[in-house]
Structures are given as C-alpha cells and as structure tokens.
Design goal:
The protein is an alpha/beta fold. It has 2 domains: 174 residues, Rossmann fold (3-Layer(aba) Sandwich), CATH 3.40.50; 53 residues, Alpha-Beta Plaits (2-Layer Sandwich), CATH 3.30.70. Helix content is 28%, strand content 21%. The chain contains 7 helices and 10 strands. The strands form 3 sheets. The chain has a 6-stranded mixed sheet, sandwiched between helices. It has a two-stranded parallel ribbon with strand order 3-5. α1 crosses α4.
Length: 258
C-alpha cells in the first residue's frame, strides 16, 4: 500500500518515529515535511492509500502552525494513523486533537499512538529516547495497525482516545533559546527556524513574540552555541527534572469492530 507521511518535526525526532513506523508498514512511502513548509494547495489522499501524521506535543496541544498545515490534507474516507511525540511529561489533549483534526478532514483514524522522546526544552527528561524498547513498541503499533488495514474498514467503530474537549489552554513560561559567545553567526538557525523568530542581523537573539521554543535552532547549530539559559531556566529545569524523572511508556489506541 502507498503511505504518505506528514510530520512537523522541529528536532527531527518525530520524523524518525514516523519514518520508522511507515517503513514498517510499506516500502512505498512519500514524505511531507510541514515543519518549514505550508502546502500551497489542498492535497487529497485517496481512499485506497494511508496517511500517517506525526506531531510533537507543545504544552499538551498540537502546535498551532502544524494545525493549519495539516488542514491542507484531505481524505476520502482514507485510513489514517495519528502519532503524538512528547517529552515524558504528558500528551494531554494533543493526540485527541490530532485525531479530531484528521476526522474533520475526511480521514478515518484507525490507530493512534503517543510515544516518548527527549524533552526539547529540558533535555535531561526523556534523555536518549526513543530507545530500543521504544522502537520495539513502535513496531508493535505498526503491526497492529497493519492488521486493521487488512480488514473491512467500513465495519470499524470510532476510535476512543483519551483527552478533553474543549482542549486545554496551553501554558507558557518566559524562557527562550539564545546564542552564546561561541556563536559564529553562520545563519543556519535563521534559515531553519520554523516561525522566522531569528533575524540575520542579530542571530544570537530571538523574537520572543514569535518563538515557539521548539528547539530547532539548538539542534541545527553546528557549533552547539545555542541553548536555553539564564536563572529562570535553571530554576525551572530543576523543578521539571524532578517532577518528570520517572520513565513513561508509549500508549496505543486502535479502532475496534462491531
């Protein structure tokens, strides 16, 4: 079967998870990276194909700019798999929101999974994840999803995913990444920031009104000169690291038959 993957992946981890899942399902995979790109027109995925959508969880929600980009993809009763990746705290309403978004766009969500990755702001939380056990669970998720795809989809009951409607209101803390003295002002972070929050003239700084704290500028910096820093960040990290040090495991949800 032909699979289209759509992913918002600032630190590239969501991409790795979605790519691993899709390749487990099929050898014919088309990738659509919406991290820095908004489709210029609607893209229709036919009913005989499969859509896999992956997003990182930001404050318990689907990233706002990802919502608008995902809406460009339309289904015709097309089966879809929803994937949310979070930093070992909680995925809150993000997976439900993503499933609702896909259903509203004409897709039939046959499975949904919440997987863990290293936290993009507090990297000690979820460090080195996804690990070997996580990828084993992704394989299990793919195999169970494949079993559903090989049956009569018209007999499926609506999938049940934990979460609340209305969705939670995202919170925020006043911390933002910035460049250190070792910054060479190469401009890579300027080029790859998903929301254009870093200017070419002042690449060490960030526009706090635009920054979504996704961490991309940190992972793409060739000299590792960009990071979250400062007293507020240090204090927040100490509290966060203590509160969410216990390992969480992936959660998977599958549509059932009458």
């Amino acid at each position: 079967m032909k699979i289209t993957t759509v992913y918002f992946s600032a630190t590239y981890t969501t991409h790795r998870i979605v790519s691993h899942l899709a390749k487990r399902l099929s050898e014919e995979v088309i990738e659509c990276d919406i991290t820095n790109n908004t489709p210029t027109k609607e893209i229709v995925i036919p009913k005989e194909e499969v859509l896999v959508v992956g997003i990182p969880v930001y404050a318990g929600r689907v990233p706002e700019m990802a919502v608008e980009r995902i809406r460009r993809f339309k289904g015709e009763g097309t089966p879809a798999i929803a994937v949310a990746v979070y930093g070992n705290r909680d995925y809150d309403d993000a997976l439900l929101e993503l499933s609702d978004l896909l259903s509203d766009n004409g897709f039939q969500v046959i499975s949904a999974g919440a997987f863990i990755a290293q936290h993009s702001i507090f990297p000690k939380v979820g460090a080195h994840r996804p690990d070997a056990e996580d990828y084993h669970q992704i394989n299990v998720f793919a195999d169970e999803s494949n079993k559903i795809l090989n049956k009569h989809l018209e007999k499926l009951l609506p999938i049940h995913i934990p979460g609340n409607r209305p969705y939670k209101i995202p919170g925020s803390i006043p911390i933002f990444p910035s460049g250190t003295k070792s910054c060479k002002e190469c401009g890579k972070c300027v080029q790859l920031c998903p929301v254009g929050a870093i200017s070419k003239e002042h690449p060490k700084d960030v526009d706090e009104t635009k920054c979504i704290k996704c961490g991309r500028c940190i992972v793409v910096c060739p000299t590792q000169s960009r990071k979250f820093q400062g007293m507020v960040y240090t204090m927040a990290a100490m509290k966060f690291n203590l509160a969410y040090k216990e390992r969480r495991e992936p959660e998977m949800f599958f549509a059932r038959y009458n």
